[in-house]
């Protein structure tokens, strides 16, 4: 059965469909020796090259993988940084086929949960605004916050790229002018959490993402460490955004052994402080 070229390339983990459509339009993709065009469909047996390099097309039954990474402050959410700063990709395990696709971004001063997957279609579905996938953050605010401000932030605030709001705001620990909050958003606009608070004249002094969809950072995964999600958890994540789950979710004994060893290593030191 044939499928659209950009969809297959996204499933191979080369990027989002939108990005791959631009690659096709710019002539970077060849199918069976001919320059591809938007609308082309391919099958598993076809020869596809990107920038002259052969791409291994994914079997539709291939297992989708997801990494939960606990990003520290100071790392940039890019593969390469011209300034030589550490990137979030440097700690991730190698993939035999395809590449890890990052689900959303966290700015250099934001810590916490970053998801990576080998399936670009899943990444795109998790990031797209139409999916309304929740992201939860804990944030420390310097400045006075009252009930009226919280109401404005949940009703909606006009930012320079349109209206934005928090779905939920929960007051946490701290004093009157230096307090922690838990907030939930359903979009992933650039620095959205920070800009919402700053629109009210207060300062964000710490920011950390603790949940994306139904995935949270396990207590034993410390800053700069990662854990691969179990197949059942990946399936739940796919169902959350309406992706098909009729693939082979079984793991090989070698993969199981490797995953168990990684989890034992992380758990052996107890929960993070």
- Overall residue-averaged pLDDT value: 89
Q: CATH topology of the largest domain, which one?
A: Pseudouridine synthase
**Whole-angstrom Rg:** 20 Å
The span between the termini is 51 Å
Overall domain count: 3
Regarding quaternary structure, what we see is single chain
The CATH first-level class of the largest domain comes to Alpha Beta
Secondary structure tally, helices: 7
Structure write-up:
The strands form 4 sheets. Strands 7, 8, 9, 10, 13, 14, 15, 16 and 17 form a 9-stranded mixed β-sheet that branches. A 4-stranded antiparallel β-sheet has the order 3-2-5-6, with no helix packed on it. It has a two-stranded antiparallel ribbon with strand order 1-4. It contains 7 helices and 17 strands. Helix 1 crosses helix 2 (17-25). It has 273 residues and is of the alpha+beta class. A hairpin with a 2-residue loop joins strand 11 and strand 12. The chain is globular. The protein has 3 domains: 3-55, Structural Genomics Hypothetical 15.5 Kd Protein In mrcA-pckA Intergenic Region, Chain A; 66-129 and 215-262, Pseudouridine synthase; 134-212, Pseudouridine synthase. The longest helix is centred in the last third of the chain and has 15 residues, at 253-267. It has helices spanning 5-11, 17-25, 120-127, 147-155, 192-198, 231-240, 253-267, and strands spanning 3-4, 29-31, 34-35, 41-42, 48-50, 53-55, 66-71, 101-103, 111-117, 135-142, 157-159, 162-164, 168-175, 178-185, 203-212, 215-216, 226-228. The N and C termini lie far apart (51 Å).
């Amino acid at each position: 059965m044939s499928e659209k070229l950009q969809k297959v390339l996204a499933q191979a983990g080369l990027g989002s469909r939108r990005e791959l459509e631009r690659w096709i339009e710019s002539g970077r993709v060849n199918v069976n020796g001919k320059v591809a065009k938007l609308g082309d469909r391919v099958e598993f047996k076809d020869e596809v090259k990107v920038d002259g390099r052969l791409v291994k097309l994914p079997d539709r039954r291939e297992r989708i993988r997801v990494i939960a990474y606990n990003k520290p402050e100071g790392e940039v959410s890019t593969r390469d940084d011209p300034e030589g700063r550490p990137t979030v990709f440097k700690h991730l395990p190698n993939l035999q086929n395809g590449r890890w696709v990052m689900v959303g971004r966290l700015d250099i001063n934001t810590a916490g949960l970053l998801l990576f997957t080998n399936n670009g279609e899943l990444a795109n579905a998790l990031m797209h605004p139409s999916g309304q996938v929740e992201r939860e953050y804990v944030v420390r605010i310097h400045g006075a916050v009252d009930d009226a401000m919280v109401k404005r932030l949940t009703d909606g605030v006009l930012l320079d790229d349109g209206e934005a709001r928090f779905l939920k705001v929960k007051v946490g620990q701290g004093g009157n002018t230096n307090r922690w909050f838990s907030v939930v958003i359903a979009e992933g606009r650039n620095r959205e959490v920070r800009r919402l608070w700053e629109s009210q004249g207060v300062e964000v002094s710490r920011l950390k993402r603790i949940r994306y969809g139904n995935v949270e950072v396990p207590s034993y995964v410390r800053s700069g460490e990662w854990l691969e999600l179990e197949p059942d958890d990946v399936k739940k994540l796919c169902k959350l955004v309406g992706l098909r789950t009729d693939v082979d979710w079984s793991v090989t004994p070698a993969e199981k052994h490797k995953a168990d060893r990684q989890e034992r290593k992380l758990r052996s030191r107890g929960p993070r402080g």
